[in-house]
Amino acid sequence: MATPALALEGVGVNRADIPVVHDVSLDAAPGAVTVILGANGAGKTTLMDGIAGLAPVKSGTIRLGDRSIEKLAPYKRARAGLGYVEQARTTFRTLTVEQNLLVAQQGEGDLGTVYKLFPELDKRRTLQAGYLSGGEQQMVVLGRALVSAPKVVLIDEMSLGLAPLVVRRLMTTVGELAGMGIAVVLIEQFANLALDVGTRAYVLRKGGVVYSGPCADLRGDEERLHRLYFGGPPLTAADRDAGAAESEQ
Known about the structure:
Number of strands: 10
Number of helices: 11
Order of helices and strands: EEEHEEHEHHHHEHEHEEHHH
Shape: globular
Helix content: 25-40%
Largest sheet: 6 strands, mixed
Strand order of the largest sheet: 6-7-8-3-9-10
Radius of gyration: 18 Å
Distance between the termini: 8 Å
CATH architecture of the largest domain: 3-Layer(aba) Sandwich
Strand content: 25-35%
CATH topology of the largest domain: Rossmann fold
């Protein structure tokens, strides 16, 4: 079985010295979209911040390829091939689109690839980012992660505040990133849109994994998603380990 691009084993993450995420294990494969779902407060963003080095990892290991990164500073994780698209959709508003991309460029990162993915940005290279629409600003943030030549890209709730049509457009790009061989780890409030583009899903509840398995097994099953998000009848071993047999193939 191929080495995961990103692998977590027994990871616990604190926020302000309070344990939020506990004993999370997951794999993200190269060229695939791994979806992380859960209700508000389930610990999804805290987990992402722990992977990126913005929140302290108190237990477990995080491997980027064959390298342990849980003790590295955030900028060293980025240099090792970890890109992070945070919720805030932060751009340098007074810099042009192209300047926003250039500040993140490193290694083999290619602006031409970004403009191919986002022709909208190609037309606005010299426009200050502060004049862009919300969707275009999100494209800049995604492009900035891409030109850092990542092996893994973490994307946290890129749809916040965007129209559904724009979200669908960006979801297409997420699939294209995976098609380039990048491992994408996606948190998304629109569960079924994420499950449509994803391969494997993990559901968090109260900071722990309550489901690990194929996205197809959850797609369109609102009742099961609700139970996984908020609880209900005791979870079965099939819910927790549905993907185990598949991952061994």
